[in-house]
From TrEMBL:
UniProt biased composition (Polar residues): 14-24
Organism per entry: Triangularia verruculosa
GO molecular function, a single term: rDNA binding
KW Nucleus (keyword) present: yes
The name this protein goes by in its record: DNA polymerase phi-domain-containing protein
């Protein structure tokens, strides 16, 4: 690597890494002489300082090691990893052209034997990597560096072009794929000339390259689109005069009336609007005068050309899933036009879309391939029309919508998947551009769409699109949904209002709890939709009476969803207040009660009368009045009793004396128990919210009223004890006979009736696997018991039939003789008939009785679940506040765990006890303790020890032990506690353990081990605290 060129090959290191070292140093912009000086012999160092050395990574006469090094470098250039390709390209370019550059023979060899020939390789990403190097070399040869005149005079433009053609023209009997690789290599080589930017200062050079491109497009039709794209790239770089010459040349060659020609014309006219354009075949393909001829040119833009040698117009081949690049240019053209004048651009695009796309790609005479391309064009416009809403408005044209709905309706349609993909593109457009939602809905519901679009297409498109409604778009969306003239929907009145009710319900249920917390821009959607739904269900006189009941059910379901969020109760109240309905002037009761209820509701919502302490209870009572008004509109027979009880609560809440406020909790519990007895999601949600607001006002009497139902038998007798005979309608509803739930709709979201037994069986399981297993065991036992009862019933039936007929079963007495009845008289036959009728009457009564007992048990169990929900709210909230009333629920909960045969109930009660223990522990950590005397604690602890002896099961013992340890912690771990209180606790455990030892009581051993573990934990904590004090 000294100053003598002839010695260079001998001094090039054979190691590839060492050979690339100078290149790595040059990449850091260090002088190229440094690596050469370091590697040169000592005698040549002085010469290297006065003369620019040559980069000798590539040599004129490579040896075997040189060829191996080159092969590895060019292999890296063709790899799929982009970073590796760029690194190899930088090494090759700098080695060939940096400094004085290599000699011309070396550069020629690389162009001819390596680079241009490499373009014809189909291996990995060879064309991409080799094109990168060739483009840079062409730029330095014929660009600003002008190396062709300074050094490489033998590599003129004609010579380099000749090398390209020679290296990439297939010859001989090549396989189809090899021939294809060669032609694509030639195309990539021509594109290198274009991208290098060396053609546009000399018309002659560009003309030669253009002829080469046109020749390629004629030789192989599948190259035509790619050749057209290269011409478009060239037009985007050239000047006005050269663009005029180019268009004239293309028009002369018949290239204009092709998709590629249209793209070239649009690109040229967008750059030079005032340029001179050939008169034929058109001056501007997108002008109104050219639209009649444009469809013929663009119809085949979705085809893949497959013909081989032919004339100037290649034959069209199979259709492809890749859309032609001309549609990107068309979309970009109208988007730029819209920035200048949206009205003018919209008018031009509407003419283009209707005449070219709608009539050209979706007409009755269009082929399936053209319709497929039309769907892709539709998606392209939706995806690319950013900030161009005027384009979206025009897309829903007549033929397109008819084809879209027809193909999407059934899976066996030929273009069904393409239509579904187009609908998903609509959903994506609504998601990414929520402001487009009203426009999209207008298109789907409009003149060429259908108001019941989802039913027509058997999809959920409208439902999914409505989920993207925001607070900014809800008003225009509601305006689109509510037609001024329902007859324009194409449906009868009943169908229209049912569809409208469905859409409003979707809007009111659009957000989940998680979305509601995160997406604040969507929180106003449900409220506005519910107001419209309530007005439609209760105030709109135009709604047919048959549909009104369905809409009211939907409104109730929407209210239930809304009340599940504590911060939206005012929205429900506002929706109720917005209802304007006529009351029968002869109904004196309604004229008296309804205005008074509205007055109470408005008064409770008055912010001037609300304090921080009364805010929660006033809001909760307002919610109850709102529900009462809703029940009045729904003609609930018990609503008058509810209003009377609410009046009592209202008087006590707003009263000034403590005596008046004292009994509000009892009234409230009675109201809530009546509400939770109904199988309604709305009543369930409202009862929870109201009870949570009133938990600080609960009294011991109120807790007693709440826990009393837990002791009821889970049978018909228990049902009679809980519910009066006047509530038969309610009990029938518990059994599942709610007429309002029988609504003909494709979804169950609009039903307010709650399948409580199914829900509780799944959602109220315990938090341990063992509890789940025990629940399964319980269900298995119930199934075995049912099978046993069925077998007993069948045996009894067999016995009765045998006695009546005088027959026997074959497996009982095979040798017995039986009378076949052939000698029976008519009177005997009549007697047998009467006996059989009597037997089956008794069987029917027994079956009916069993069903009644089963339904009664489900009713009681469901009611207990709702009561436990309320108790769980009270315990979870008030235990953290050290409210002593939480302990009033302990014994009823333990009694339920011990007596119930329903595992989910026991699990839910056990969960409430666990929450009590955790809440008391948290309250004590915050410095709060329940205000209970030590004697009261001890009395409760004694009762708990008595309870522990009533059931030796593991689950019950665990629950009792948790309660005992909670009470013990309050007596033993308080600094102010007297020593004898602590001794009482230890003595009580010792007495109970002694009774257990003597066999007087049966208790699980875990009861005492839990106590010892608790003592051990406290002993360790005390020792640690004492040690810290000694250290100080």
């Amino acid at each position: 690597m000294g100053s003598k060129r002839k010695r260079a090959p001998k001094e090039v290191p054979n190691d590839t890494t060492a050979a690339q070292q100078p290149t790595q140093k040059r990449s850091k912009k260090e002088p190229p002489s440094e690596p050469t000086t370091e590697s040169a012999p000592n005698g040549a160092a002085a010469t290297a300082k006065t003369r620019t050395p040559k980069v000798t990574l590539f040599v004129e006469h490579p040896t075997g090691d040189d060829r191996k090094r080159e092969a590895e470098l060019y292999d890296q250039l063709g790899r799929e990893d982009e970073s590796e390709r760029i690194k190899a390209a930088h090494t090759i370019i700098s080695s060939l052209l940096s400094g004085d550059g290599v000699d011309e023979p070396i550069l020629r060899r690389h162009l001819e034997k390596r680079l241009f020939r490499g373009l014809a390789s189909g291996r990995n990403a060879s064309r991409l990597g080799f094109s990168l190097v060739i483009t840079e070399i062409l730029g330095q040869l014929f660009g600003k560096e002008d190396l062709v005149n300074k050094k490489y005079t033998g590599l003129g433009f004609e010579e380099v072009k000749k090398i390209l053609v020679k290296s990439t023209t297939p010859f001989g009997n090549l396989a189809g794929q090899e021939e294809r690789n060669h032609w694509f290599g030639q195309l990539f080589g021509v594109e290198c000339f274009v991208r290098s930017g060396i053609l546009f200062s000399d018309l002659k050079k560009w003309t030669e390259v253009l002829d080469l491109l046109l020749g390629l497009s004629m030789k192989k039709s599948w190259l035509k689109t790619q050749c057209g794209y290269v011409i478009v790239q060239a037009v985007a770089q050239m000047g006005k005069k050269m663009a005029e010459e180019t268009l004239a040349k293309l028009a002369e060659e018949g290239f204009a009336k092709t998709p590629e020609g249209v793209g070239v014309w649009i690109t040229a006219l967008d750059r030079f609007p005032d340029m001179r354009v050939p008169g034929q075949p058109w001056r501007n393909p997108l002008a109104a005068s050219s639209l009649s001829a444009l469809p013929a040119a663009l119809k085949d833009s979705g085809r893949e050309q497959t013909s081989d040698e032919g004339g100037k117009k290649p034959k069209a081949g199979n259709w492809t899933a890749q859309l032609h690049f001309v549609w990107d240019l068309i979309l970009a053209h109208f988007a730029r036009a819209g920035q200048k004048s949206e009205a003018e651009a919209a008018e031009q695009f509407e003419q283009f879309w209707n005449r070219v796309v709608d009539e050209g790609f979706f007409s009755k005479n269009s082929s399936d391939s053209q319709k497929f391309s039309g769907f892709m064009i539709f998606q392209k416009m939706l995806e690319g029309a950013l900030n161009c809403e005027f384009i979206v408005k025009i897309l829903f044209s007549k033929n397109l919508m008819a084809c879209l709905m027809n193909q999407a309706a059934k899976e066996d349609r030929y273009l069904h998947r393409a239509a579904i993909k187009a609908l998903k593109a609509l959903e994506a457009a609504a998601q990414h551009n929520p402001t487009w939602l009203p426009t999209i809905l207008k298109g789907l519901f409009g003149k060429y769409g259908a108001y019941n679009f989802d039913q027509r297409t058997n999809t959920k498109t409208i439902d999914r699109i409505l989920q993207h409604t925001t607070s900014d778009t809800i008003k225009p969306v509601l305006k689109v949904l509510q037609l001024k003239d329902p007859s324009k929907s194409g449906l009868d009145f009943e169908q229209y209002y049912q569809a409208l009710g469905n859409y409003l319900l979707r809007l009111s249920n659009a957000l989940s709890e998680e979305q509601y917390a995160k997406e604040s821009n969507k929180r106003g959607v449900a409220q506005k939709a519910i107001k419209v739904l309530a007005e439609l269900a209760y105030s709109n006189k135009a709604v047919p009476e048959k549909v009104r009941a369905t809409l009211r059910t939907r409104a109730t379901s929407a209210f239930a969803k809304l009340t599940s969020r504590s911060d939206t109760f005012t929205d429900l109240c506002d929706a109720i207040l917005s209802i304007e309905t006529e009351v029968n002037p002869e109904d004196e009761l309604a004229l008296t009660v309804l205005p008074r209820a509205f007055g109470r509701l408005k008064d409770l919502l008055d912010g001037d009368k609300t304090t921080k302490a009364t805010e929660g209870p006033r809001q909760a009572l307002a919610l109850l009045f709102a529900v009462g008004i809703l029940q009045f509109y729904n003609q609930d027979p018990d609503v008058m009793d509810l209003f009377d009880e609410l009046e009592e609560c209202y008087g006590k809440l707003v009263g000034e004396s403590d005596e008046e406020e004292a009994g509000i909790a009892e009234f409230l519990v009675e109201i809530l128990l009546a509400m939770v007895a109904r199988p309604s999601a709305l009543m369930k949600q409202v009862s929870r919210q109201v009870f949570e607001a009133f938990t600080p006002l609960m009294s011991a009497e109120a807790i007693g009223l709440l826990t009393d139902p837990l002791a009821a038998d889970e049978s018909a007798k228990g049902q009679q004890a809980l519910f009066s005979t006047e509530d038969e309608d309610m009990m029938d509803a518990e059994g599942g006979s709610d007429d309002e739930s029988e609504i003909e709709d494709d979804t169950a979201l609009d039903s307010d009736v709650e399948m409580a037994n199914l829900e509780d069986a799944g959602s109220d399981a315990g938090d341990a696997d063992s509890e789940d297993d025990s629940e399964d065991d319980g269900s298995d036992e119930e199934e075995d018991e049912a099978e046993k009862e069925n077998q007993e019933t069948l045996d009894a039936l067999d016995k009765a039939l045998s006695e009546a007929l005088g027959t026997h079963r074959l497996d009982q007495d095979a040798d017995a003789e039986s009378d076949d009845g052939s000698d029976m008289t008519d009177s005997e036959m009549m007697a047998v008939d009467e006996k059989l009728a009597e037997i089956f009457r008794h069987r029917t009564k027994a079956t009916s009785k069993k069903k009644e007992n089963k339904d009664a048990k489900e009713t009681v169990v469901n009611f207990k679940h709702r009561v436990l929900d309320l108790l769980g709210i009270f315990i979870k909230k008030e235990s953290t506040q050290a409210n002593p009333l939480v302990f009033d629920a302990v014994l009823p909960l333990l009694n339920l765990i011990r007596t119930t045969t329903t595992k989910p109930l026991a699990n839910k009660a056990h969960e409430a006890i666990q929450n009590l223990s955790k809440g008391i522990k948290k309250a004590r950590s915050d410095g709060n303790t329940p205000d209970i005397e030590g004697s009261e604690h001890y009395e409760m602890l004694e009762k708990l020890h008595e309870e522990a002896a009533k059931d030796p099961s593991h689950a019950f013992t665990k629950a009792v032990s948790t309660c005992c340890l909670t009470a013990a912690s309050l007596m033993c771990n308080d600094d102010d506690t007297e020593a004898d209180d602590m001794a009482k606790v230890f003595n009580l455990y010792a007495e109970t353990q002694l009774k257990w030892f003597r066999g007087e009581v049966k208790i699980q051993a875990s009861f005492f081990s839990d106590w010892l573990n608790w003592c051990q934990a406290h002993a360790n904590a005390a020792a640690s605290s004492a040690a810290k004090k000694e250290e100080k």
